[in-house]
Amino acid sequence: xxxxxxxxxxxxxxxxxxxxxxxxxxxxxxxxxxxxxxxxxxxxxxxxxxxxxxxxxxxxxxxxxxxxxxxxxxxxxxxxxxxxxxxxxxxxxxxxxxxxxxxxxxxxxxxxxxxxxxxxxxxxxxxxxxxxxxxxxxxxxxxxxxxxxxxxxxxxxxxxxxxxxxxxxxxxxxxxxxxxxxxxxxxxxxxxxxxxxxxxxxxxxxxxxxxxxxxxxxxxxxxxxxxxxxxxxxxxxxxxxxxxxxxxxxxxxxxxxxxxxxxxxxxxxxxxxxxxxxxxxxxxxxxxxxxxxxxxxxxxxxxxxxxxxxxxxxxxxxxxxxxxxxxxxxxxxxxxxxxxxxxxxxxxxxxxxxxxxxxxxxxxxxxxxxxxxxxxxxxxxxxxxxxxxxxxxxxxxxxxxx
Length: 402
Ligand SMILES: *Cc1c(COP(=O)(O)O)cnc(C)c1O
Known about the structure:
This protein has 13 helices and 16 strands.
């Protein structure tokens, strides 16, 4: 039985990197009455969100909208473009990349995993840096028979707080003239970090609703390219629900083959209005600035940031590594129970080694300051030795950077 009085007063601080806090304006938009998904008004909504989401992906190509979580959109990207048993090159940047690799394996594809060797402070080295495009280039150069059909990378690795340079991956593929498709997971990157589907030459971009788009969980996306659509027409992999072709046809008039998530589409429309009114450039700058403030706090505490490459720190979340002997989940538990703040747990290979602070969705300088206060108090209560006040450092950062 759900304890409805669990958060008795004030707002719970949902400081995990997705689902992110949803603006009230979006929650209200979701409460409009559900309408006939085959009726005339629906097409107005359908055409609007399909056009809006293209602007968010920075594409003029079709974008598929599924009533599913991001995992479904991962599957859709693979089953539409590949053939049974195809060899794919997948880069392991962290836990989400690993889950995508597992999903591809379960579908019968043959992933070859690229990763940096070794460890860095007890963490796989590949989980502290972004995609190293030269490793992809070297591997594709050796594949003169073009057995590799797709290169799969994660744009913003939500388990580590590292972004990857997608344009560099495209360049690596083009440098060797390899025909592999480029499939990119930007489930947590979209609408937080700059993402240019067309300009970066991505064939399928995969995203979800509950991260940068500030929506509840429940819808996900595939942005396509001409080459990806061509591949989907030739592919013989069995697909039904995830198939693009029927969607593409029906979307032209603002409808879907099966019942779309009507109330989440109201929310999507509202979110796109908010993001596009602010302007994507300002949205990206806002997340960068928050991330800088949070990193200032972590540095002042004297704790390590999981991302070991300063050029690719995530604007979406920050991974905070614990000193040896400190269980990150025990710290999280104190912060949750005492201060009503949820932080992201360490996933997979970094379980217990780190926690994650999300700085996305409906937040602002003061909500972030509150979350950092909760972290600082919790770290002290857990007996973690801090070298200074992160709260003070973040306040200084936010007040000195307009
Ligand atoms: C959240 C996330 C996923 C998983 O999406 P679900 O909506 O949980 O299925 C995959 N990849 C990344 C990078 C994510 O952040």
